[in-house]
Amino acid sequence: DSVAPLDRALFPLLLILVNDEAPSVACTALRGLADCGAGLARVLAPRHVDALTNSLANLSTSRHWRVRCCAGRVAPALAPACDDNERRRALAEVVAKALDDVVAEVRSNACACACACAAAASRRNDGFWVDAPLKEVSRLGASDSSRQRRTGLLLARSLVDASSSFAPADREKCREDAAALADVLATDDLPLVRMDAALLLAAPIPCKDGVVQRLAGDDDPDVSEAGFDALKAREERARDDSSCAVDF
Fold it and tell me: Model's pTM, two decimal places?
């Protein structure tokens, strides 16, 4: 068994370290795993993946927010080793839980981790890790909680930003779902949500006529500023596209 040395010494020690009661020790071990990148999946057998995913699930409820944050960071390195849907769903749940965290840094880190999983998986033609965060975008965007709606917009914006490295079909799907969310939340009752919708609409996504203009004319100054910036970004892209067409 090529992983026998890992079983005998390294992996048991690793589990002890990531579950250490001292947050600094656990975070250091978790960061080390995250830094392994895709190389982590190459040395883990399925039993290691299951044990590590279970540890991450437990750590995602830690009372220390930095531990919860670092647990999510391991997901992109571990995702390629999840070779069936049950393992994929278990790891995706760790990221989803972080998206609902009360601490903003944990939520923003979860958005980045979800995008990293999606980008790597899209290159492998693994649709699960693209569909999973898009389902979270839909769930969060429809929430009664303004915090969750804002997280949904942040996740959508992060996915659009990362989608340049996606397969074309996945990139189009991300942009269409982001556009649908922005269109709905551009009329949200809460100014902060409308502002985040405007920030998303500055990205290269489809947009219905009049939506950005309405945000640019919003009564709230922060929404209006974000809407104006989005309008300017979209106009500049349209000019660049026209220029390229003429040059061609």
Answer: 0.89
